[in-house]
């Protein structure tokens, strides 16, 4: 829907007809991540190969394995390092749609081709051979934390996980990595003073089956809206809130009812996205 040159997805009806979800090929434009991670789109996207050194795509039936070329290069470099370090083969899930943009449900971010979800678990079949199309869409991810009890699932923990997260975190292209708070706590408990790499590892809801890697805006990409870099202590007090009474009340739905906030207008998408939508 075009309103005054800006794309607006305010109503449920508009969401039901989300044009971004119908576009199956990247735009034939120069690559750019346009707007912010939660309100933007992607021109000139690259498709991630199904499999390569150190990685295997999963859930490819969703058509969300596109990214800014910077993300594709990062994922390939990172996967190569994972393989060289003997850490197996990572399984990469959702990235962005062919032209980025918003999803009707699920992700809020992943809109500009700079976000990728990577499973903590590695299926033994994918270590040995390429997965079939059916397997890519149906093999199960293994959770490392119980999101309801808010505790680590020890029997699923794997010593490779901290090493893989550290490789990603120490890449200068990476700005943030989201993990379940219980996983962040476990990493902090075991890191001792060698914990500078944990600054970028941020506790967040969900993320018990996968971690989410977010790259900074690519250099020279003027249309990309950056986030403030993280400046927190690697294992500072901000982690404590996730284990507070207030948090558990929210988790268990026993928090006192708050005044319902006024619904806020969704900001319009960047003007440039109208061209991305219409480009060949
Ligand atoms: Zn994600």
Beta-strand percent range = 15-25%
Q: Structural class given helices, strands, pairing?
A: alpha+beta
Helix share, percent: 10-25%
Order of helices and strands: EEHEEEEEEHEEHHEEHEHEEHH
Largest sheet: 4 strands, mixed
Any idea what the radius of gyration is?
19 Å
- Identify the overall geometry: globular
From the 3D coordinates, which CATH architecture would you assign? 2-Layer Sandwich
What's the CATH topology name?
Answer: Muramoyl-pentapeptide Carboxypeptidase, domain 2
Discrete helix count: 8
Query: Which spans have pLDDT < 50 for at least 5 consecutive residues?
Result: 1-11
Number of domains: 1
Q: Strands of the largest sheet, in order across it?
A: 10-15-13-14
Span between N and C termini?
A: 18 Å
Overall pLDDT = 91
- The CATH class label is Alpha Beta
**Tally of strands:** 15
